[in-house]
Fold each of these.
Amino acid sequence: MSLTDRLRRALDRPAPKGLLAGDLVDGEEHITAPVPAAVLVAITERAEPGVLLTVRREHMRTHAGQVAFPGGRIDAEDADPAAAALREAEEEIGLPPAAVRLWGEADPYRTITGYRVTPILGSVAPDLPLVPHEAEVADWFEAPLAFLLDPANQRAVEAEFRGRMRTYYEIPWEGRRIWGATAAMIVNLSRRLHAWS
């Protein structure tokens, strides 16, 4: 069975123990009500599938310069998280919604910036002519799915933030640093995959 088939099957199973719930630490959960958001985990249909990721512009108010999945806040006109993720992917990298074959939702993740992010998984044809949105996205790239999901490539790092020690994950790949919520959602996909393989 292929890696993508195994991942699709794992999405249909109950959530395993050990998933990362969010960036918050004890006592911070009720600081603010989370803002619903969604991201698109677009997996390319290759013999060795990849994942489309963006690099946010340096001037952005939040997560400047970070690697991220295409996505953002769920707007009132969005029917559901999938609709929001598809809309944002089209806005950010010119990915037409009709080009995505949706698989389903993965486990939500609560960010320290106040979002509750639902990852939406789907597959896309390889080598689509994507164009980053000039004001929001500096670049986009494709990283190998197998590399991202390999626990050996996922490093836990501790750092002080707002006066508290926090643990986050990072996945270095070809000079890129995938970290924070994006890496955490990848770690959750990896844990879900390995729990049901």
Note: The chain has a mean pLDDT of 90.
Amino acid sequence: MTDLIHERPSRLVSVRELFDIDSDFKVPVFTHKDEHVPEADPSYCFNPDVTMAILAGFTRNRRVMIQGLHGTGKSTHIEQVAARLNWPCVRVNLDGHISRLDLVGKDTIVLKDGKQITEFQEGIVPWALRRPVALIFDEFDAGRPDVMFVIQRILEQDGKFTLLDQNQVINPHSYFRLFATANTVGLGNVTGLYHGTQNVNQAQMDRWNIVASLNYLPRADEIRIVQGKVPRYADEAGYKLIDAMVAVAELTREGFAAGDLSTLMSPRTLISWAENTEIFNDPALAFRLSFLNKCDEAERPLVAEYYQRCFDQELQESQSVKLTLL
């Protein structure tokens, strides 16, 4: 594993060149691709406004939070920007099992020269602070209160981090960056979709310099993304199929917004539907296995109606399975 401590961006590149965004804004790019740099997805579709918000975080050291519904690619968006900048990136999911010790560090017993000794093993926060790393906190609004107060220390732009157990004060690396993703904006489970989310301390929310919203893309862009993930449907016939799938997804989102449905089809589920259609060679069966069976039984007739409207055929109760052999 390479040590990043002495790495620095080597050049500035226009966002017009990297992201095809009409702007003279220039961003720092690393020459060497470290093992922590995410793999670039050539088919990824960037949202221009969110991309500029993320680039402001990388370029001007702004603390950036991306908020939006599930499956919209919030974390992936940050990673794909980092991939094109060759910027090392580490994701931490703030689930209920992440503790203060995981972030800060803890004493561990190690064997040296045949003897057991106690040695401090630093957590992900001090490790990242010392390096030119983009640290992403996923599901930021699901973090435990004790964990959130650890993060609050580093939300200041030049915030120093104190390791009390080691009597150390860590000065952040000049190219350390901090991002977060959240389904809510710290207001808790308002819609009923996101059980486990917390009300985030508003003093902490105030420390995020930029909050960008990433929601569902226009139909043409969503079709292009699905075709990119499932190349079998990249032809004209495939376009018509994916167009009908996206139309169903849009109806579920409208139904959810109107209060008719308690769930909706995310882009992630849409891609799964297309992938399962390739497996079973049957969009109706794949639809039921990918989405319909996740819905409340009382709502399934309405969802089946959405399918019928977009595909001009009834959704049968049973479908024969036709596996596509690879």
Note: Confidence is low (pLDDT under 50) at residues 186-197, 319-326.
Amino acid sequence: MSRPPTLTLPPCARAYRIDTARGAFAVHDARPDGAPIGTALLVPGFTGSKEDFIALLAPLAAAGFRTVAVDGRGQHESPGRSTQQAYEQQELALDVLAQARALKVPDGGPLHLLGHSLGGLITRAAVLRDPAPFRSLTALSSGPAAIDPAQQARVRMLIDALSTMEREQVWEAMRSLDPPEAADDAAPPEIAAFLRQRWLNTAPEQLIATARQMLAEPDRVDELARTGLPVHVVSGVVDYAWPVPLMDAMARRLSARRTVVEGAEHSPNAERPEKTAGALAGFWSDVG
């Protein structure tokens, strides 16, 4: 999961719920001082939330982009439903398209879509369903198909645990499996408390359904290439969910821009936000 470096919104941003044809979604909405040169919709990954992008908001606003980070349905502060069917990938893709329509205002410039990790699979499904609202797609630490086999074993354990244990028990079990550098006591107290509360806020049906998607996702890279939409593939130098060479190959198949953020792993958005924001803003400016 991403661990945000701060929970404090910059002055350029505000938190609220955006109304769409498919319900309300909690967002962080950051705006530049003048008219935006473009708008970016940021979709978080598995066990994530809009807070994962909080460190990107100020630098992207300074670059001229309105940036809207969203909690998907059943994630953290967005309402969810109590059936796994509500979180099928096509349902989540339709949510993204509804969010895009709600954001597409005349003075907002072109709309750029970004998905982190699982969010990359969801945003890809949205684009394959309807690329028209978007000027570009960025896959941030997200690969061509199912996650790496080593991670699949951990995800299957999580699905089993969520089916038989209380979420608080699952959280404690997950933390015990983390490496020392990822342990809660390595984070500031307010961040550790937030990570726990976010986990407890997220619908278990959402976690189970999206976990299964990461295990079964087919390779849809050729379908994405046929849309003709400009794509940016961004990652850290190491990634445990999708090996970096796999993302290199995906970028070549898409004729995509490729950025590797030095000093980052699976969450460049949180680990090296200034470098990541610079790469994103440069790409969005170039594709216009």
Note: The chain has a mean pLDDT of 94.
